Amino acid sequence: MAPEPLATLTFAAWRRLDLATAGRLAAQVAGSVGGRLDRVETVEHLGAPLHRVLVGRGERMFALIPGGRVTVGFDVAGWRPSAELLASYMEQSVNEGFGDGDLHGHLARVLSPRRTVTVPTLLMAVEDEPLEEEPADMPAVLAEEGLRLPTPDEWEHACGAGAGTLFRWGDECPLDRLPYGDGLGPQGEPNAFGLRIAHDTYRSEITSEPGVIYGGDGGESLCGGYGTVLAWLPLATANRHPDLAAMVFKEDSGYCTDDLSARPVLALR
């Protein structure tokens, strides 16, 4: 039997596979990149099973991210936050001088819009990694290892795994705790693909597009005391952190890049 064309495997097709077939494809993925198959397991995601595949290669662990035609971004107009979330935002943020009364308008400014895109099936590092060089030099550094940075569309798809919710775990965030230094919140769990992603507001991930940063705001919201809702918002899947990106990529800005990171991508053949 001829091997499956791995690069054309789609997220939609992957969700229809039984575990045995997924396991065979996972072994093929690992072999195609000279890696070792570490894990094939099934998790519940969006009300249906999803097979999660982890592949080790050298010292890195990668997760399989099936692509194809997928939906990313966030539908701000269609979002209906709970009364508790809105009350927290008004009391802790607006009343303290942060943000304004229009939370939907704020989201529209910082989140990428809902859209349908085509992305390749690929392997993405489970963990993000501190930058070895300045952001502009990282593509060349990764290319020496046969790796690259994710595109913004790839990052959002890998993080949300098809979820149209504000966060990768749903539309709400815990209002009784902050996202930093607390292992009990949903941010501490691997996402549907097995990535440790959008988990620390102090860690901000660069992408292949200069100025597009995801995953954290460098701790600004926490240190600034912006309130619980705005402290969680940097972990929203489609939050591109435009203000942080403007500082990072402005020449001679003096911004410290110690908290910036990269998440290597390994292309499939």
- How many distinct beta strands? 11
Shape: globular
What's the end-to-end separation, in Å?
18 Å
Mean pLDDT: 91
Indicate the structural class.
alpha+beta
Query: Nearest-angstrom radius of gyration?
Result: 19 Å
Provide the low-confidence segments as ranges: none
Proportion of beta-strand residues: 15-25%
Number of domains: 1
- H and E string: HHEEEEHHEEEHHEEHHHEE
Q: Into which percent range does the helicity of residues fall?
A: 25-40%
Could you name the key traits of this structure?
five-stranded antiparallel sheet, alpha+beta, 269 residues, 11 strands, 9 helices, single chain
Topology, element by element:
Layout: H1 11-15, H2 19-32, E1 36-45, E2 48-57, E3 60-65, E4 68-72, H3 83-93, H4 103-110, E5 115-119, E6 122-125, E7 129-130, H5 138-143, H6 152-160, E8 204-206, E9 213-214, H7 220-223, H8 228-232, H9 242-248, E10 260-262, E11 265-267
Parallel strand pairs: 8-10
Antiparallel strand pairs: 1-2, 2-3, 3-6, 4-5, 6-11, 7-10, 8-9
